[in-house]
Amino acid sequence: MKFSEMPYVRPDLAQVLADCAAYAEKIRKADSGEALVRLYREENACLAHYRTAQVLANIHYTQDTRDARWTAEQDWFDENGPSVANAEVEIARALLANPHSRALEAAFGSTILPTLENRVRSMDERVIDLQKEENALVSAYQKLYGGALVELDGKQLTIPQLMLYKQSLDRSIRRAAYEAEASYFDAHREEFDSIYDKLVKNRNEQARILGYRDYSELSYIRMNRIGYGPREVAAFRQEVADHVVPMLRDVMAMRAKRVGLEHPMFWDGELTFADGSPVPHGSYEELMERARTMYHELSPETGEFIDFMQDNEMFDVMSRPGKMSGGYEEIIPDHKTPFIFANWNGTAGDVDVLTHECGHAFEAYLAARTDLPEELQCPGMESAEIHSMSMEFLTAPWHGLFFGPDTDKYELFHTEDSFLFLPYGCMVDEFQHIAYQQPDLSPEQRNEVWRKLEEKYRPWNDFGDLPFYGRGAGWQRQLHIYECPFYYIDYCLATVIALQFFTASLQDHADAWQRYLKLTRLAGTATYAQLAQSAGMKVPFTPGSLTALSATIHDWIANHQV
Hints:
Distance between the termini: 45 Å
Helix content: 55-70%
Largest sheet: 3 strands, mixed
Order of helices and strands: HHHHHHEEHHHHHHHEEEHHHHHHHHHH
Shape: globular
Number of helices: 23
């Protein structure tokens, strides 16, 4: 079924809650492991109808945040979603309390019982009203950000559309693009500050009610992180600061030399080559057809996948006014189809986001065609990002389809960009730990925290007198800080695995692809560490784990200067 043909009906909340209560009761009374497994499958299938409506409403809303109909539907889910989540907790309680609960582990792998336990530990009817308020605040941020239009070059531009100007060969235009962006955030400074302040206090209150110190502690439960916690993540951040940042100082010096700037400023950051950044060649239609060619040649599985996606209108990737910024992939359960949302703007990032979201979508497409219950079709997000970020590298043999003579430049830029992401992602994560552990910080104090973290993780950045960024408020551009707290470190954990896939593919691409396929087919039945180990990759929590990898990536970059 094409996306435009998918029917939408707002769920009957009373019926959804009644169904949940009925399944919880049946599960409590299940008298065998076989019965328990069957009921778990049934309740997953039942709730998939609700999730289908929820996903469709959210997709339509993010396609145009100004649309009154879909704003109303998003508001409905913001208001009623927490009640459904609480009802799902009661199902989880019943599953865990049943004396045959180990049958679930035997049927579905090692993640299911810890996942159910985390669900019980992270939700309670006492926080429903707070979650409703949280949802409304996130939607307000999406509307504020998604509605951004700025004046530049005699045009009204969205934030994503500014990227082309940030990559201009004219330094004054690059600065002007950042100033235009800053003008919007500074004009709405109080709104952005107020929304975040309310979100921090709201989430911390949820954590307090549920018995946690603050939301930074609760977040690990809600993110369903299994087998590691804040201590391991803090050690990982320190590894990045100790071993990756020094390597990146050298990489940034190479880039400065390459572009011919003796003292690069922050607004020069998107200039990666003296003659301009690599950009994909071709119209939307041409690029999508090349994507079809790429995935047909990569493997039979990806060929089937890309045909399904394109033939059923499962891409919305062009930027336009009113459309929410960013990119995502969502599975529409009843239709067993992934949907890809992005904001193409004519830069190399268009190919990044295409291959990235296709990595998510490919895993979802495969998992939806197995007999796994819907909620086990995707692993934790740090693991799901392995699918996407590794796909960016494993499609490298076909990048020439998009970049032609600029392919070598793109390969260098993409590898640098992935390497540079590690300290940025760690900076976002550490900032959030501080923000929630010190919830009474003023907006100015939060900005000062961000400025100090810039010095720790990205010491090469010089903001000069640039508005917005110069006062340390650049974190407000990062959607995840508002929408998905503590998610961002997942990208870093996945990047480390993706870079290992990159180095493996340089040695034997066919073998690297088969290892990726093996990892991907495990879906949500294994933990982050188990998935990494299934593909022969090192888990990055031990001291020194990044030393050899960062040296290898640094040397590859040094040897591939264009």
